[in-house]
Amino acid sequence: MSVPSLGRHKSFASFAAHLAEAAPSLVADEHLLGDAGPLGSRLAVGSLEIPNRWAIHPMEGWDGTSDGRPTAWTLRRWRKFGESGAGLVWGGEAYAVDPAGRANPNQLALFDAVRTREELARLLAELRAGRVDAGLDPEGAVVGLQLTHSGRHSRPEGAKAPLLAAHVPWLDRHTGVANEAHVLADEELAALVPRYVEVARAAQEVGFDFVDVKACHGYLMHELLAARGREGRYGGSYEGRTRLLLEVIDAITAACPGLAIGSRICVGDLIPHAAAAGEPGAPIEVGRPLEHGWGVDLGDPTRMDPTEPLRLVGDLLARGVRLINVTVGTPYTCPHVQRPAAYPPFDGYGPPEDPLTSLERQVALTRELKEAHPDAVVVATGYSYLQEWAPHVAQAELARGGADLVGLGRMVLSYPRLPLDTLQGSALDRKRICRTFSDCTNGPRSGLRSGCFPLDPAEAGSEDAVALRAKKAQARARAGRKP
Ligand SMILES: Cc1cc2nc3c(=O)[nH]c(=O)nc-3n(C[C@H](O)[C@H](O)[C@H](O)COP(=O)(O)O)c2cc1C
Ligand code: SF4
User: Three-class SS of residue 226?
Assistant: First the structure.
């Protein structure tokens, strides 16, 4: 389908009319109130003071060294996170607790605990320097580190090296996983717990305020949540499927008193979508009811079902985990719901619906979670698709009580200072607004770094930008489209 572009709206009224048609339950304020409005309001979470309601989502760059250390590109990104002025930096990027669980050979990872401490200290120092560059208190933001294991999507040396929670025929087919791929045994899963603790301890020692135990986007912890067919301690029942996540959280709580814990969780999912490149995606054929799933209606897996995710949030709150970052779907199976985009990645399918409708689904689940668990500190996701209208929807959604903070992912790659500009009441720099071109996803899909190649001036002429242009031209030629 052709997507009505958001960039074409020259007035709020025009945007509001589009919103009313494509996503009627979304709200937007015409006038931005800056620091004096909901986006500028402080939020206390235990002993943590979040100075405003903008958050930065974790954004990995595929740009570490092959032994898991940050490079100049990684440090630059963290500096930009600091410059953004966002009150909460959620995770920075996915840090692999085990080198075998890296999603790519350039992911930051725990190889050696002493080195991990040194590197985390450098990342945090860079972020604080970014805040100083922006004229802000270096210690002013609340900063976390995201802990991950890539499970099915592990590629520590570049080639697929999946480490599964379970074999699932349709998912194996869709994600290109062979029958002989390794299913992690209960003992192997239990052995990951101390690795999560090791990185959490290092993060706490160098000054991170919290860690995020990532349970989304199809990676190991998310796949375990869905592993209804898995036998043993870590699958089957709700208790079995949530066990590893809760064990990790309990172990970090015991080993790191005073360190806050959060979780980025999948609150809704759909079965994989597919189509020829650029054609509108459609759900793949699967037998029903599904035998594997989390946050999805098993009888009709084209619909999300947040019943279990909401129960999990209750269990997290009971353990003192209040920081919840809401996300849906996975970038490997249903990217249109996970990160709505006008221009899908070049190997992906076209939007099956107006991306505003995809965003509306995510916003509705976020509201539902906040309503069910008012004590949770809820971070909303997906707002980069809104482009210049993101602050208008963010302000209205916060005022409505649908979330506690609004997170930005892609927008911070193209326009790191957007949060600060909105808080200070400055006009937005339209040339830097993320237009969801997806090149930050195309890069990694082509074995390159991620970055905002189209809009970040430092990236525009980089080696990876040039290589990506060539790869895209080849892909277009293969598909018989104009260069
Ligand atoms: C290049 C890229 C890297 C990402 N890296 C991570 C990551 O390390 N951890 C994570 O939880 N999500 C990651 N995401 C997802 C984003 O955090 C975010 O959920 C998504 O982009 C939707 O938010 P947005 O509309 O503001 O971009 C990544 C997304 C992109 C495009
Ligand atoms: S490459 Fe830049 S403009 Fe495109 S989606 Fe990523 S951040 Fe946005």
Answer: helix
